[in-house]
Amino acid sequence: MSVLAENEKQSFEYYSGPEFTGVQEEDPGAPEPAETGRIFCIPAEDGYGLNMSFGEKAARISYRILEILVSLTVLIVSLPVMLVLAIIIKFESPGPALFFQDRCARSRLLPGRDIIGKGDYTIVDPHFDPDKRYWVPATFSFVKFRSMYADAKERFPELYDYNYSEEEIDRIAFKVPDDPRITRFGEWLRKSTLDEVPNFWNVLTGDMRLVGPRPEIPEMLVNYRAGQMRKFTVKPGITGLPQINGRGRLSFRKTVAFDLEYVDKKSVGLDIKIIVMTIWRVITKHGAF
């Protein structure tokens, strides 16, 4: 059941139904969106990182220093290779070598009163309080090497419609073989994972982490159920559980399920295990196409 509350200019909606938990891919009883095209905001306590111990915070600070050192090293060492890749990309097809796009960052915490009337948001809370804090989607400028034709959106507009039905979103996988938008060299870049090397710049600036859910495009947020929005309470990463468990072969729902599992089990130790396994997956090109 939904309850509408209005201010003088606009209205917002909050969900006052049963408590919700993380949604697995197979869960048929997951709460459905209250209204098509709206984006869920969940309470602060349902996200990650608000109750970390002193030891966990210290470990995170040390880990962040390591991330900065690793990112700087990768960017400096790979600079000659990146210059060669940029020249080849420019030579193969018109357009810039680098691809910039708005992607979902870690969500911001805002009081309920500041969310009212802003955007197509649905606050999910059976005990809504305008002074209570909620996770609200945010974006950052994501960078990678361009692997698609620069005019792909104009040439293939049907591939950029992200308003899926529940049946479609349950079975869809976004990386498919023979994608007509991808250039010949771009296909090789993706298989080698070299298209993602510029992601280390995003790690260096603090928008991304070495490990975390791959950054989602904002247009897809309307397809996320309430419990799945926990995915955005951690920073996105270069690699994560989906990348070592099937990568591009996974369905959307299965990818989200792995991302939620990561949020629930997030730790420095788990990150290190994922990084080690990612190196092996990249070498074997597991799930890459």
Spatial ordering of strands, largest sheet: 1-2-6-3
**Hey, roughly how much beta strand do the residues contain?**
15-25%
Helical proportion, percent range = 25-40%
Mean pLDDT: 85
Number of helices: 9
Low-confidence stretches: 1-34
Structural class: alpha/beta
Rg: 20 Å
Spatial separation of the terminal alpha carbons: 43 Å
Order of helices and strands: EEEHHEEHEEEHHHHEEHH
> Could you describe the largest sheet, including whether it forms a barrel?
4 strands, mixed
Q: Categorize the overall geometry.
A: globular
Number of strands: 10
Overall description:
Helix content is 34%, strand content 16%. The protein is α/β, with parallel strands linked by helices. The strands form four sheets. It has a four-stranded mixed beta sheet with strand order 1-2-6-3, with no helix packed on it. Strands 4-8 form a two-stranded antiparallel sheet. A two-stranded antiparallel ribbon has the order 5-7. The protein is globular. The termini are far apart. Mean pLDDT is 85; it is low at 1-34.
